[in-house]
Amino acid sequence: MRAPDIIIAVDGCSSTGKSSFAKLLASELGFLYLDSGALYRAVTLFAMENGLISRDSVISPALHKALDGADLHFGQGGTYLGERCVEKEIRTMEVSALVSPISAEPYVRSFVDGRLHAMARNGRVVMDGRDIGTTVFPDARLKIFFTASEEVRARRRFDELKAKGESPVFEEVLDNLKKRDYIDSHRAASPLRKADDAFVLDNSDMTFTEELAWVKGLIQGKFSIME
Ligand code: DC
Questions:
Q1: Which residue has the CA at smallest separation from atom 7 of ligand 1?
Q2: pTM above 0.85, yes or no
Q3: From ligand 1's centre to the CA of 1, what distance in Å?
Q4: 7, 36, 46, 96: which to mutate for ligand 1, most atoms within 8 A of CB?
Q5: Which of 25, 38, 127, 197 has the least CB density, counted as fewest CB within 10 Å?
Q6: What are phi and psi for residue 35, nearest 5 degrees?
Q7: 174 contacts 151 by C-beta, under 8 angstroms
């Protein structure tokens, strides 16, 4: 007998550590991990490389049509644009600065949602993003909403960029994070907000091990998928 499909939705603000957490949770449960933010970032890179967005965030209407020909998928080592692994390029400050306006476009959202639905078909999936529990999979079996203070999140992002060899300025990182939070939670199309039935995890003062124990407690209490 086939095990039932289960979607675990992990939503929340940027730099709450939800992606690392969702990835680890998926691997512990033997689930597929899908990072929806990576697809928004890949669309942004696609728009940048094709001259469809300017540095000051003006998006060409031609992006809508151009997306028909965009081959975005996950493969060995992360996110791919066609044959090319773009996992590193999609994490730069340049992409981070333009991804929020791109992801506020309704046609971009429906393009990404279509890819996510196709990838999650017939499976046990941990998916992370901003609107998974509210819009993409409102019937997800378990919804977790990550949050943490702005300073803690900016410090995490700053350390991450430094570890990658970039030279970030803390105030700029904090500013980018605040701007993204604002755009993400105020856009008309599918804004960032906690689903009514999501469990909130504020990890400002929690270790990774404590987070995992907390979520495993939730999972065991909610349904039996650990066997
Ligand atoms: O999780 P992230 O920081 O890599 O996401 C990048 C951007 O994509 C973020 O600024 C908001 C957007 N996003 C979204 O609008 N909806 C999602 N489900 C995931 C990400």
A1: 37
A2: yes
A3: 36
A4: 36
A5: 197
A6: -100, 100
A7: yes
The token pair that represents 211 in the structure block: 């987070």
Distance from the CA of 5 to the center of ligand 1, in angstroms?
24
> How many beta carbons lie within 10 A of that of residue 46, not counting itself?
23
Q: Convert the pLDDT of each residue in 8-23 to its tens digit.
A: 999 998 889 899 899 9
Q: For residue 91, give the ligand 1 atom closest to its CA.
A: 4
Give the pairing of strands 78-81 and 84-85: antiparallel
Which atom of ligand 1 is nearest to 136's Cα? 18
Phi and psi torsions of 187, nearest 5°: -70, 155
Taking the centre of ligand 1 as the mean of its atom positions, its distance from the CA of residue 226, in whole angstroms, is: 29
| Positive or negative: CA dihedral 129, 131, 135, 141 | positive
**Non-local CB neighbours of 59 within 8 Å, separated by 6+ positions:** 47, 52, 53, 101, 102, 105
Neighbours of 14 (CB within 10 A): 22
Cα(36) to ligand 1 centroid in Å equals 7
pLDDT in tens, 145-171: 999 999 999 999 999 889 989 899 999
Please count the other Cβ atoms lying within 10 Å of the Cβ belonging to residue 194. 17
Which residues contact ligand 1 via a Cβ below 6 A? Answer: 14, 36-37, 40-41, 99-100, 103, 129-132, 180, 184
* DSSP 8-class letter at 68: G
How far is residue 67 from each of residues 48, 58, 62, 134, 212, measured CA to CA in Å?
13, 17, 9, 24, 37
